């Protein structure tokens, strides 16, 4: 299904704190399918749970990328507290326990995550002739105006807005 392309230049409202969470895996031994496939297969159920319960969980949106050995999922969350609360939920805990039981310190497959807390006004975005993507799926998607024409202006405008509130 083709995504709607928005001609022109767009940005996002950047007046709220968000959390960017990167999570992924790396296949270190392609022949050890029995080790890495269960790790790979654990993710779709969690993704479905996140999209089904977005508002209650504080999950905003995500993008996924697949390389030859490494995958990465970029997730956007309302808060670190929401992200950490999800980590304690049953579906995630089951996947984590299963990983530790089946893989543990075996080097056939690796996993990683990184968490970034972004304060309001400390991030900016631009999307030219793009479907809604990344932050523009998670936050309000707006056309770029004269006041937001450059990255510097988008950052300054949001910092000024936050300082005045």
Low-confidence stretches: none
Query: How large is the count of helical segments?
Result: 6
> What average pLDDT do the residues reach?
88
Biggest sheet statistics: 4 strands, antiparallel
Strand content: 25-35%
How far is the first residue's CA from the last residue's CA? Answer: 41 Å
Number of strands: 7
Structural class: alpha+beta
Q: Rg to the nearest angstrom? A: 18 Å
Question: How would the global form be characterised?
Answer: elongated
User: Helical amount among residues, as a percent range?
Assistant: 25-40%
Order of helices and strands: EEHHEEHHEEHEH
Strand line-up across the major sheet: 3-4-2-5
Your description of this structure?
The protein is an alpha+beta fold. The protein has helices at 33-52, 54-57, 80-87, 90-102, 135-138, 151-164; strands at 6-12, 18-27, 59-66, 70-77, 109-118, 127-130, 141-143. The protein has a 4-stranded antiparallel beta sheet with strand order 3-4-2-5. Helix 1 (33-52) runs antiparallel to helix 4. The longest helix is centred in the first third of the chain and has 20 residues, at 33-52. The radius of gyration is 18 Å and the shape is elongated. The chain starts with 5 loop residues before the first strand and ends with a helix. The mean pLDDT is 88.
Based on the model shown, name its key terms:
165 residues; alpha+beta; four-stranded antiparallel β-sheet; 6 helices; 38% helix; 30% strand; elongated
């Amino acid at each position: 299904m083709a995504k709607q392309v928005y001609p022109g230049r767009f940005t996002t409202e950047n007046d709220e704190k968000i959390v960017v969470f990167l999570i992924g895996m790396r296949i270190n031994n392609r022949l050890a399918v029995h080790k890495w496939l269960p790790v790979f297969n654990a993710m779709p159920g969690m993704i479905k749970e996140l999209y089904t319960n977005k508002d209650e969980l504080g999950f905003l949106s995500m993008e996924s990328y697949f390389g030859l050995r490494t995958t990465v999922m970029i997730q956007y969350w309302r808060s670190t507290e929401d992200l950490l609360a999800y980590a304690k939920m049953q579906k995630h805990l089951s996947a984590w326990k299963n990983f530790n039981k089946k893989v543990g310190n075996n080097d056939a497959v690796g996993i990683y995550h990184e968490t970034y807390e972004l304060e309001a006004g400390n991030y900016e975005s631009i999307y030219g002739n793009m479907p809604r993507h990344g932050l523009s799926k998670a936050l309000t998607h707006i056309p770029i105006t004269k006041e937001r024409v450059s990255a510097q202006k988008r950052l300054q405008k949001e910092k000024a807005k936050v300082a005045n509130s």
